[in-house]
Amino acid sequence: MARVYVSAVMNASLQEAWAFLRDFGALGNYHPFFCNSFIEDGKPADQVGCVRRFEVREDGGYLREQLLALSDDEHRCRYRILHIDAPWRNYVAEMHLLPVTEGNRCFGEWWATFEVPPEEEAAAVERVAATFRTFFACVDEAQAAGR
């Protein structure tokens, strides 16, 4: 089973970073790897069970992910992949945000586990890790730009 863990301290407050994360349908609006994201069936983006669909900018493939848990109290969300144009199975990811005690920053951690053919594991782990790292960078860039 592949495992990925990425963490970062972001130059954004907990509330600012959480605003990005909790809008489950907005990924394609700010993440450079993805585009055309939306929540299927017009459901609210914070409704557990909702499904987001988005395209991979690089190859035009698409993903469908289902929100499994969302906690405003814990600043945490969990989701699973329903469809990906890759031989990955049982992908579940979780992200958690915590305040940093000094400054107007927060700590984010994001992890995932999934099954992937052994010969593709290293590339898949790096792809997921890059996605997570880029999310943290997007939050930093948005705050620096005043968005």
From TrEMBL:
CDD domains named among the record's database cross-references: PYR_PYL_RCAR_like
Pfam family, one: Polyketide_cyc2
Source taxon at top rank: Bacteria
InterPro entries: Polyketide_cyclase/dehydratase, START-like_dom_sf
Protein name per the record: SRPBCC family protein
Species this chain originates from: Ramlibacter rhizophilus
